[in-house]
Amino acid sequence: MKVYTRKIMTVMCLFAVVGILVPSGAWAVKEVKIGVIYPLTGGAAAAGRELRAGAELAAEIANNVMPDLPMAMAKNAGIKSLGGAKIKLIFKDHEGNPTLGADLAKKLILDDKVDGILGCYHSSVTKTVSAVCEQYGVPMINGSSTSPGLTQRGFKWFWRTTPHDKWFTKDLFELLKGLMEGKVRGVAKVPEKDLMNLASACENTEWGSHVSELIKDLAIVNYKEYGFKMKKSLLYAANSADLSSEVRSLKAARPDVMLFASYTSDAILLVKTLKAQRAQPKIIWGQDAGFEKPEFRETLGDSIQGILTRTVFLPKVVEIKKVAGQVNALYKAKTGNDLGGASARAFTGLQTWVYILEKAGSTKPAAIQAAANSIHISGKELVVPWAGIKFSTSGDELGQNVLGSGLIGQYQKEKDGSIGLEIVYPFDVASANMIYPFPKW
Amino acid sequence: METLKSAFDFSDFPRLDISIAGIIAIFLLVFPLFSHSAFAMATMIQFLMFSVYGMGWNTIGGYGGQVDLGKAQYVGIGAYTTAVLLIRWNIPFWFSMPLGVCLAMAWSFIIGYPLFRLKGHYFAIATIATSLVLMDLFSVWEFVGAARGLEISPIKYHYPDFWRLIFKKDIYYYYVILGFFFVGILYVNGFRRSRLGFQLRSIRDNEEMASSLGINVHWAKIKTYAIATAFVSVVGSFHACYIKNIEPQDTMGLDLSILIALMAMLGGAGSLWGPIIGAAVLIPLKSYLKAWLGGAAGLAGIDLVIYAVIIMLISALEPRGIWGIVEKVRRRRWQ
Fold it and tell me: How many CB atoms lie within 10 A of CB B35?
């Protein structure tokens, strides 16, 4: 009996010693499951592939030690505060369908028991998915949906890293203003009357319709003194097989500046139709999304020279940010493409997840919520040219990153004959002279 | 009383059919009580929703032979009525849903009158056109949120709220839509043996002959069109509370109209069980193919290819749908 008691005591002591020596997190969590909902099929499948690759690369860096990368998440294998727990991504395809998105969010939360959600690109899908997360009290980080309304709903479990369309559209008007004031690199002062007439065509879901309203508001209210006139404002279905009547209508308005908010396939179709109908505005500007996808450049080739697009990341950023160059090299080795706006934001979205988990030291929703609300990620850690990430915790934009900013790029021919994006705004980081007016097709 | 009796009278079906239907009904009633995944529950709710959509479509499209490809407009009317009344005036689902049905039926009378002057493909195209026009109107109508649509905020209401149909757990939604599903079956069962049901079948078989027998062909079609509309409008109202977010593209798009018609056609148009079989095959097939192949195996898009091939195979094998195949097999056995 005595021998037995001694043996039991010894085993218990051993357990106690191991329990003291090994951090509690190591027992608690082996992996952190993040549900990632992106459009992997359908009209935005090209963007979905980019988003997926961006998120996967961030997870790879977080799960392995990469000492050369000047990022905190590259210094440890896994989440240090959770005993080295690895990030596991569970991907779901929402096809751009908000109803399907909500169903998938429920599946991820209730069946796969994810610790949090990342997604969803389409603002309309982000809206339904974030509503499900709010209902279940599961944290969601959004890296790439830009409809301003998403962070104006008072949700407590939703955080957005990317700047939203109000900021981006304002950047466009600042560029137009800069052209009128002679601030744009390589362009002489443009008379106001040459840029007065605007026309827009935006896809007709949450995102596009919001952009369309913002353009009207900014032109007529905020930049009233510059005399902008909204000659035409159209909404169209992103899955349209033909946009010739929309383009004809835009052309008939004889605008100086044409503005678009389009996903990939419709952006390509729009530019093809503009070319076919020989539309000749002085400026063509796309609100990111389809206008900066590799497929847009590959399909349309030289004909996109002179087209502007707003973004949060351009390959030229690599020249001004070392960390962006290093991550871009890894991304190129993995996919064959440079980082773009979508992939860089997906990367940043997952990176934010990693930093929040590290700060929280737990996968409990309340701990994650507290960490997200108090986190401050330095701009030096990010591939995107932002001042950092810090979420608003009061006011009418709960969960919005207040340190983000946008860029405007222009497609220009590189020295090697390929088409690439050059930074034209902000003016102080312009990487090339702007092509103005838009060249003949 | 006679109508109620007729709704519960399944005596013209073979005993085997009734037994199978009974087993399925019991399964549907007890399904949530057994362990199930959230995904299975969402799939079941989708199946029930599309079954009711299909039952509605089946009255005019199956029994009446009028191929309607614009049903989504009535889903939208039902969904928007419920959402607008709830968000703006806090009016509960059980009041807004009947109002949505009335509005949808009124709209169906307005457009049904000129639409049924057309026949065959022209009618089908006209239904698509009216649905798309209404969707475009809703896309620019600020009162209903224009293209951004409306959101029933999850933080504004306390759940479970049976009056407003705001729940956190899907089990409540399941039993509500299951109730509509059973009511739908009983109604269609009564309808197919009603005076209007017989009139419609004769119109489908030979319109001139039906007219010569004294049937007011135009009026019979309009009435049935309104009945079909009521079905989809009810589910539209349910959809608004279930998804809590509606927008024109998602609620009134052409995809939805075609899917509703496809369920009924593939299952077997003109039969009581057809739309249910169609939804029972297509909805889980689509959901699980996507989950297994698109998600788990990483073969994004392959699920759509397999889904399309199965639809093509069934259509090629038996144009009367799956129920047509069942009847063919049964006839061969008896011979």
Answer: 5
